[in-house]
């Protein structure tokens, strides 16, 4: 039940694509961050504990290799995140990633370029129990849950399909029918069954 805290700019306006497992890794490490931590802090966890948390067989060597590969992808992945003054900053998720093969322990630190969006969350931030994100199997459900939690206080949000698939839930489905069937309906069903919020959506047709 550890809380996850993120700056709303990272949730609502950043451009990045993650797999479900990459999303879970980010969620897991962000949940370890404490208010008094400083950029460069190393966070340690075992692959065994991580797999057990997600209901994955930690004794299967494939999962060990998969987590290792996803960590490498995250360390190599750069993302654009808006700044509060209207600019964009090119950031990275992780700086150091160290694995102890002996006991399967992983140590990671967030990159200095992204610390503002994870450490400085005193205003305009979103918080939720990490367990709700882990419960969602679809990567699109994780994105949409993240996004809707950031707007929960407002109650509703209207967003164009273009912005939705560019920022809020990156996906290849530009046609509404495919977006509805493969993303929206799946996410609404999972979020309503497995998390702390109830959600629905309504398409708005614009003449032009």
Structural description of this entry:
Strand 5 and strand 6 form a beta hairpin. With 208 residues, the protein is of the alpha+beta class. The model has no long low-confidence stretch (mean pLDDT 88). It has 9 helices and 7 strands.
Sequence-ordered SSE layout with sheet pairings:
Elements: E1 3-7, H1 8-12, H2 20-30, E2 43-46, H3 47-53, H4 61-76, E3 78-82, E4 88-92, E5 94-100, E6 105-110, H5 115-118, E7 125-129, H6 130-135, H7 139-150, H8 161-168, H9 176-194
* Annotation field: number of helices: 9
Euclidean distance between termini CA atoms: 47 Å
Task: Report the portion of residues in β strands.
Answer: 15-25%
The rough form would be described as: globular
Question: Strands of the largest sheet, in order across it?
Answer: 2-6-5
Low-confidence stretches: none
Largest sheet report: 3 strands, antiparallel
Can you count the beta strands? 7
Radius of gyration: 17 Å
Q: What class would the helix/strand composition place it in?
A: alpha+beta
Helix content: 40-55%
Mean pLDDT score, rounded? 88
Q: Oligomerization state of this entry?
A: single chain
The arrangement of helices and strands along the chain is EHHEHHEEEEHEHHHH
Keywords for this structure?
globular, 208 residues, alpha+beta, 3-stranded antiparallel beta sheet
What is this entry, summarized?
The protein has 208 residues and is an alpha+beta fold. Helix content is 42%, strand content 18%. The strands form three sheets. Strands 2-6-5 form a three-stranded antiparallel sheet.
């Amino acid at each position: 039940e550890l809380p996850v805290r993120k700056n709303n700019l990272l949730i609502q306006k950043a451009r990045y694509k993650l797999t479900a497992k990459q999303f879970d890794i980010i969620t897991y490490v962000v949940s370890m961050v404490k208010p008094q931590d400083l950029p460069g802090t190393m966070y340690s966890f075992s692959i065994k504990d991580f797999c057990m948390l997600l209901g994955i067989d930690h004794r299967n060597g494939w999962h060990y290799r998969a987590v290792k590969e996803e960590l490498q992808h995250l360390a190599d992945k750069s993302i654009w995140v808006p700044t509060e003054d209207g600019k964009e900053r090119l950031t990275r998720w992780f700086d150091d990633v160290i694995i102890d093969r002996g006991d399967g322990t992983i140590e990671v630190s967030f990159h200095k370029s992204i610390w503002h969006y994870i450490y400085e969350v005193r205003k305009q931030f979103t918080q939720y129990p990490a367990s709700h994100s882990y419960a969602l199997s679809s990567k699109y459900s994780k994105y949409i849950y993240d996004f809707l939690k950031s707007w929960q206080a407002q109650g509703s949000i209207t967003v164009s399909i273009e912005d939705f698939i560019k920022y809020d839930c990156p996906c290849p489905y530009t046609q509404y029918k495919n977006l509805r069937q493969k993303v929206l309906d799946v996410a609404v069903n999972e979020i309503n069954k497995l998390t702390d919020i109830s959600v629905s959506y309504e398409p708005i047709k614009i003449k032009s």
